[in-house]
What we know:
CATH superfamily of the domain at 148-232 and 278-326: Bacterial extracellular solute-binding protein, family 7
CATH architecture of the domain at 148-232 and 278-326: 3-Layer(aba) Sandwich
Number of helices: 12
CATH topology of the domain at 148-232 and 278-326: D-Maltodextrin-Binding Protein, domain 2
Helix content: 40-55%
Distance between the termini: 42 Å
Shape: globular
Structural class: alpha/beta
Strand content: 15-25%
Largest sheet: 6 strands, mixed
Amino acid sequence: xxxxxxxxxxxxxxxxxxxxxxxxxxxxxxxxxxxxxxxxxxxxxxxxxxxxxxxxxxxxxxxxxxxxxxxxxxxxxxxxxxxxxxxxxxxxxxxxxxxxxxxxxxxxxxxxxxxxxxxxxxxxxxxxxxxxxxxxxxxxxxxxxxxxxxxxxxxxxxxxxxxxxxxxxxxxxxxxxxxxxxxxxxxxxxxxxxxxxxxxxxxxxxxxxxxxxxxxxxxxxxxxxxxxxxxxxxxxxxxxxxxxxxxxxxxxxxxxxxxxxxxxxxxxxxxxxxxxxxxxxxxxxxxxxxxxxxxxxxxxxxxxxxxxxxxxxxxxxxxxxxxxxxxxx
Length: 329
């Protein structure tokens, strides 16, 4: 079975060992909230294709994109209750259930797509995902929606002083409020769907966001300056209802886990390549993209040290993840 990826191609076949003979066929529903052009749909499609191949066609994943089965919150609740078998959902939405998930979006803990691909399959990441079992879900994999940058209606940000007082849209969670207060901006929680009008009307001056969203939402019409900071990623977690997973055979469980891990690196690297394409496309739309200086990044790391300490002290799983991710620095 083939699935069209987020980037217009067909998911490439991967080399797998001989598939086990399963006792019975299984079809699972997977709903997500993004459009088919989004990297997290690409993650779902790659996973479904890998499961199909590993099971020799005996396990199928039926994907329902673009909120067909509910929005982010509804899908997460659906997987908990078992009304939806699976989802690929923003990890930030899970932090209200399990604060350890905040580890995945602490600033400059993972700085490159290669860092993310390595840590997504690490024992420390799996320990955090396994923690969701107490909430009726199993975390099978961690994928990527796009590294975050800083979009402004005014001049690009070059120094810490430039952040001062900027009304900046942030996702409404404690973590993001802590991160952005530390820079000196005026963090402004706002629904994602209101960002365009907020920039256009001056309700906000800036937004921290990924290039994919700047392109897909047409934000370049309202704001023209991007500082390429790469401060953290926007992960999506592959979740399955715990009762559904526990009711499967060991072979079926293994197929899901192995398929989830197998597609992490190609999916993450595809997002990296897509980012480079988007830089060209956005420049053609009149957007100015400026690389953050090493001096600015050093100042940001210093400003964010208390945030990393606060969250590492809060949960040993976060501390373990931060240590593993930064031990090579």
